[in-house]
Amino acid sequence: MKRIFFVLFALLVCMGLFAQQQFKIGDTGPAGGIVFYDKGFTSDGWRYLEAAPAGTEVAIVWGPNKNIAGTETAIGTGRQNTRLIIAALGAEESAARLCVNLNINWRNDWFLPSIDELDLMYKNLKQKGLGGFEDGFYWSSSQDAGNYTLALTKLFSDGNQYVGYKDYANNVRAIRAF
Fold first, then answer.
1. Which residues contact 77 (CB under 8 A, 6 or more apart)?
2. Cα distance between residue 152 and residue 17, in whole Å
3. 15: pLDDT strictly greater than 50
4. 3-state per-residue secondary structure call for 47-100
5. How large is the greatest C-alpha to C-alpha distance in the chain, in angstroms?
6. In this structure, which of 23, 49, 89, 134 has its CB flanked by the most CB atoms within 10 Å?
7. What pTM did the predictor assign?
């Protein structure tokens, strides 16, 4: 009985230590990517954002020119944006579909970042020489508010935000929240 108690106690201690693991920007995340954001506290089930490893980057279309109502730009909205895109486009080829289909190191909770999340990737990783990002355009999950045939992009050579036609192939780097 004492042995079972000891094993259970040790297991609970280990789980507690793992659950409280702290990450810094630039650290390798649980899925093998790079942590690029720490909001400082856990809420809505997450504290950190992790960019997928460099080898997972692909150039792909955002999707067909279909209006996706409700996408937002703020930090923390990329996952919901991705859900909205998938719900509207179904199995059609898209940047969002590519992200949700990723399975990296047994993690399959990837999504297409919002434009503000993409901006953090640029500032906290690309500008510091981390993450192996190319200098090209990257898709966000944020649709242009004024024209549904466009989605917001970030040019990683200069950090400026642009719009791009959804049927044009740009780079995609998936992220996950944990």
1. 71, 114, 116, 117, 141, 142
2. 39
3. no
4. EEEEECCHHHCEEEECCCCCCCCCCCCCCCCHHHHHHHHHHHHCCCCCHHHHHH
5. 67
6. 49
7. 0.89
